[in-house]
Amino acid sequence: MQDELKAIQKRVGTTFVHVTHDQEEAMAIADRIVVMNAGRIEDVGSPENIYMQPKTIFTASFMGEVNFIPGTFESATDSTISVKTPLGTVELPEFECRGFAPGASVTLAIRPEHFRASTGTGPRITLGKAKVEDGSFFGTHHRAHLSPLDYPNMTITAHMPQSAIIEPGAWVELTLDPTSVVVLHGHPPRPTPESAAL
Fold first, then answer.
1. Rounded to two decimals, what is the model's pTM?
2. N or C end: fewer C-beta atoms under 10 angstroms in the chain?
3. Which of these, 186, 113, 46, 14, lies nearest to 35 by C-alpha position?
4. What is the pLDDT of residue 95?
């Protein structure tokens, strides 16, 4: 049905407004997504930008599984920013700081698929070691729940490569590409809002 709707839209050349609560459907069909929360617009953009670079904590959580790590914005230079988290201080590439001031509460948003084996190529940062609590093999990846060594009360969900050995009790390094981390204003509210629409 998704393919059929896209084909019809392409054939008739008319703008469609498609309202759905299904995030995957929205990303599969839309050229432009508007995320709404309690009747107010939270975010607007392409499916790629909405998913990879959400502008708010609500958008990040609503558009798919995500890990939230609370932090404090410390400083920025011409090339990097520094964020203090329970897992240690994280240095990230400089980006549009969106008015962050030293001492501001921020949240690092990290998608499970952005965690990779420590042997990966390209720029890497590490958030320390974590213990595997459990894991499942999904064919394309292992889905694992991890407890960071420095913050055992936190649970991180990671999609590890097919070749990874995921066994309960094993220790892995939490490494990722720093450009995949999104820094957002504030800390996630609890509970997460239940109602939203695309």
1. 0.84
2. N
3. 46
4. 67
